[in-house]
Amino acid sequence: MTDPAKDITAKRAGRETINPVTASVIQGALENIAIEMGYKLMRMSYSSIIRESEDFGAALIDRQCRQLCESKQSTPLQSGPIPGYVRGILRELERRGESIRKGDVIMHNDAYGGASHGPDVSFTVPVFYHDKLVGFSVTTAHHLDIGALAPGSCGIVEAVDAYAEGLQFKAIKVYDEGQRNDAVWQILRDNIRVSDLVVGDMEAQVAASRIGAERFVELIDQYGLNTIDAAAEALFNHSERMMRAAIRKIPDGEYSATSHIDGYLDDEDPSKRDLIIKVTIRVRGDELTVDLTGTAPQVPDRPINMPFEGTVDVAIWLVLRSILLDSDVHGHIPQNSGLTRPITIIAPKGSLANPVFPAPTIARFCPGNALADTVMKALAPAVDKQVSAGTGNLKVIAFSGVEAGQQWVHMEIFEGSYGGRYGKDGMDAVDTLYANTRNNPIEDLESHVPLRVNRYELRQDGGGYGKWRGGMSTVKEITFLSDGVAAVEGEGHKYKPWGFLGGTDGRTAELVYTPAGGGKINMPSKVQYLPVAAGGTLSCIGAGGGGYGNPLDRDLDKVRNDVLDELYSVEVAREHYGAVIGADGTLDRKASDQLRKEMGG
């Protein structure tokens, strides 16, 4: 029999002639370039969503639009789509009959041309070596505002089409052969709120992309273009071999799961609420197909549709990479386009997962996370020790207002949580799946905008119960210090994160608005434009992850520690875990054993 790994190499690039040590050294050098790009972008940026939360991407792409490396600080939802951005740019330039030249810097955010959604704007610098195009240096970042119908670039949940979502940039040259296109930059300043921050962030992206291009040329100078190309092929093939080997360990077969997203629970139109996501995974040898047939039709006039290239593909790749090639098990793996070669994705045109222009897409964030979670749910029976139970989805709010004649905009991501895992509890209070940005410090928020955080803590009894409990989400309460507006983009107010192998489902998310005059109002998961007078408060309560395994199998000492840490109440410990714990934290082991027997443990 032939070795499939050798066949892949021969089929893709002939026999590898590069020394593996040299390839590994070049891999490290490429990754360091992307990391430097990321740090430069963070340090030059103005807004907290990039500087603190690290909602950006940085990568080097070869001339065939394959990702060579990415910045480790960036999120999967930013770096993952970058090859698609470049393909979209090249298609658009070809359509217009334009060429790429040395000194160009190209801006792009077309959600139907590879971009993740409109606010995630890329700046691409083509890399030339001795007048030959050899690749692209690219940064992406989420911007505070993109000129949509309401302030901010999140919470835009009622846009009727793509044109209502803000400015569209389809391969726009902001620098043409090194000459700055001042008219484009003026259009940006004239049509984007808080333009000093946004344009400053964009200029930081340009600078970071240029740094990446310079470092790439220096690397080629050091090793030669042929050696760099050979190393790239070797790295692509290595990543592909690892993914194929991981897929071969899954029994051939078909694995399916469905889930629902809230949609617009307060809408009278049933086509806008309780929307289904269906995933069928087919495994055949060392290849895997993810079929989304059965997913709900697109919503033509609400922006929760997911771009197929830029959101759907990235959500699927991220989950499969995380489950099948866990870094804790496999160590460092070159993050490049070789990983996706064995994976095919099918999504019917006109569905929520493959919309048709001009269906709006700006609020695809939470539906995409739900899709990723459903992929994990589908694969869970086949790789039960490699998955987590259901993940608590996120919420993102755009806060805005005018103070002293100046408009301000702030974007805050509210954490979710992971479900329990084999041998481990779910992670608490984190941004989940493809949206793994960092938590924004309270001090940064309060020092820049007129908001005050009154309360920020873990949600007690928030996770699903299991041998390994679901992660706890957060409770964050924010008060407006001056009149302003809030716009909310969230999910999971109706549907709970799923429990696994006897674990219970997690808890749903909540949003409570308390006007300045008092009286609590429970809000839906999506709120387009909510005027808030000074003193008004929003309480954001995140969803808790699902439990993994029978709760009655949980170690009693762990239950006691959870109670002492105020993650669980004494009542919950008794009712769901059969743990008899006194008000002083004392565990009655004998009474607990008896209670567990009575509960069927």
Question: Can you tell me about this structure?
Answer:
There is one protein chain. With 601 residues, this protein is α+β, with helices and mostly antiparallel strands. Among the domains are: 4-239, no CATH class; 388-549, no CATH class. Helix content is 32%, strand content 22%. It is built from 15 helices and 20 strands. The protein has helices at 4-13, 20-44, 48-51, 76-79, 82-96, 182-191, 195-223, 225-248, 308-324, 327-330, 365-379, 442-448, 556-564, 570-577, 589-598, and strands at residues 56-62, 67-70, 105-108, 120-129, 132-142, 172-176, 179-180, 253-263, 273-284, 287-291, 343-346, 395-403, 406-414, 451-458, 474-480, 484-490, 510-514, 521-522, 526-532, 537-541. The strands form 4 sheets. The chain has a 7-stranded antiparallel β-sheet. The protein has a 5-stranded antiparallel β-sheet with strand order 14-15-20-17-18, with helices on one face. Helix 2 (20-44) packs antiparallel against helix 7, helix 2 (20-44) crosses helix 8 and helix 7 crosses helix 8 (225-248).
Specify the overall morphology: globular
Poorly predicted segments: 1-16
**Record field, number of beta strands:** 20
Average pLDDT, all residues: 95
Helix/strand structural class? alpha+beta
Q: Report the portion of residues in β strands.
A: 15-25%
Topology (elements, then pairings):
Elements: H1 4-13, H2 20-44, H3 48-51, E1 56-62, E2 67-70, H4 76-79, H5 82-96, E3 105-108, E4 120-129, E5 132-142, E6 172-176, E7 179-180, H6 182-191, H7 195-223, H8 225-248, E8 253-263, E9 273-284, E10 287-291, H9 308-324, H10 327-330, E11 343-346, H11 365-379, E12 395-403, E13 406-414, H12 442-448, E14 451-458, E15 474-480, E16 484-490, E17 510-514, E18 521-522, E19 526-532, E20 537-541, H13 556-564, H14 570-577, H15 589-598
Parallel strand pairs: 10-11
Antiparallel strand pairs: 1-2, 1-5, 3-4, 3-6, 4-5, 6-7, 8-9, 9-10, 12-13, 12-16, 14-15, 15-20, 16-19, 17-18, 17-20
